[in-house]
């Protein structure tokens, strides 16, 4: 199961005494800020969480497996995510605990 915007809004509403409407606005505004920063080529680093980076991919040769024709895929930009060390440690601690319980 994945965490949705609706789930995030509900959690903020519950924890921060904000109305559902205001919490929704906060989430939407935050996502718009992140999207516009990435669109302009800026990286977005959230301390203790991770870093979203915009990477440029060069054009390359590709193949359509259905028709077996070759084509050139255009250059593009992609967003990558690098997990913060603190978050990685927390995630790995959980795995270590699970393995110890087994």
From TrEMBL:
<dbReference type="InterPro" id="IPR000119">
    <property type="entry name" value="Hist_DNA-bd"/>
</dbReference>
<keyword id="KW-0238">DNA-binding</keyword>
<dbReference type="GO" id="GO:0030527">
    <property type="term" value="F:structural constituent of chromatin"/>
</dbReference>
<keyword id="KW-0810">Translation regulation</keyword>
<comment type="similarity">
    <text>Belongs to the bacterial histone-like protein family.</text>
</comment>
<dbReference type="GO" id="GO:0009893">
    <property type="term" value="P:positive regulation of metabolic process"/>
</dbReference>
<keyword id="KW-0805">Transcription regulation</keyword>
<dbReference type="GO" id="GO:0003677">
    <property type="term" value="F:DNA binding"/>
</dbReference>
<dbReference type="InterPro" id="IPR005684">
    <property type="entry name" value="IHF_alpha"/>
</dbReference>
<keyword id="KW-0804">Transcription</keyword>
<dbReference type="InterPro" id="IPR020816">
    <property type="entry name" value="Histone-like_DNA-bd_CS"/>
</dbReference>
<dbReference type="Pfam" id="PF00216">
    <property type="entry name" value="Bac_DNA_binding"/>
</dbReference>
<dbReference type="GO" id="GO:0006355">
    <property type="term" value="P:regulation of DNA-templated transcription"/>
</dbReference>
<protein>
    <recommendedName>
        <fullName>Integration host factor subunit alpha</fullName>
    </recommendedName>
</protein>
<dbReference type="InterPro" id="IPR010992">
    <property type="entry name" value="IHF-like_DNA-bd_dom_sf"/>
</dbReference>
<keyword id="KW-0233">DNA recombination</keyword>
<dbReference type="GO" id="GO:0006310">
    <property type="term" value="P:DNA recombination"/>
</dbReference>
<dbReference type="GO" id="GO:0006417">
    <property type="term" value="P:regulation of translation"/>
</dbReference>
<dbReference type="GO" id="GO:0005829">
    <property type="term" value="C:cytosol"/>
</dbReference>
């Amino acid at each position: 199961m994945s965490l949705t915007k609706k789930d995030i809004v509900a959690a903020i509403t519950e924890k921060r005494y904000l109305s559902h409407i205001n919490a929704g606005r906060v989430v939407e505004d935050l996502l718009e800020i992140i999207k516009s920063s990435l669109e302009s080529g800026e990286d977005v680093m959230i301390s203790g969480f991770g870093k979203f980076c915009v990477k440029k991919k060069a054009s390359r040769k590709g193949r359509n497996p259905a028709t077996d024709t070759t084509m050139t895929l255009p250059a593009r930009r992609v967003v990558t995510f690098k997990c913060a060390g603190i978050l990685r440690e927390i995630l790995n601690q959980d795995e270590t605990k699970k393995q110890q319980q087994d």
